Amino acid sequence: MRRVRPGAAASRGGLTSVTAGETYEEPADLPRLWHVTLSVSGEEAPLHEVRRGLEQLAHDHPFLLTSRYANDHAEIRYWEEARDLHDAAAVALRLWGEHRQTAKLPPWEIVGLEVIDRETYHQRIAEGYGPPPATPVGVHPF
Predict the structure, then answer these.
(1) Is the pLDDT score of 90 beyond 90?
(2) Which residues contact 115 (CB under 8 A, 6 or more apart)?
(3) Is the pLDDT of residue 10 over 80?
(4) The pLDDT value given to residue 9
(5) Backbone dihedral angles phi then psi of residue 41, each to the nearest 5 degrees
């Protein structure tokens, strides 16, 4: 029989006990889900190149829910897990620029950004306004 001194398991990352009657509270800074809509536009580009770039972006980052595109603008919608709105928005604002080279996206600029929490998204859908659920998922023309 192996002996373990008191507290040794906890110091090694083992299980710890909770005294009866104690309650567990979730930490306030746990990640939440945010619905992001990123709009980009710029000079016209061939539709097949826009589609290919968005498909590559979706392949590289499977979190992308849906993309709609035309030859001079596109909209990307997805769920982001982040601590707060500021973090979700910061990630969204970097998405297009950071992946423009690898996905061969057009040199368009971000012209719109909406970041809403999960509760607000579902409330809008229930009330009949806001973005419809993203079906079918994938890359589609406007």
Answers:
(1) yes
(2) 34, 35, 36, 80, 85, 88, 89, 92
(3) no
(4) 45
(5) -160, 165
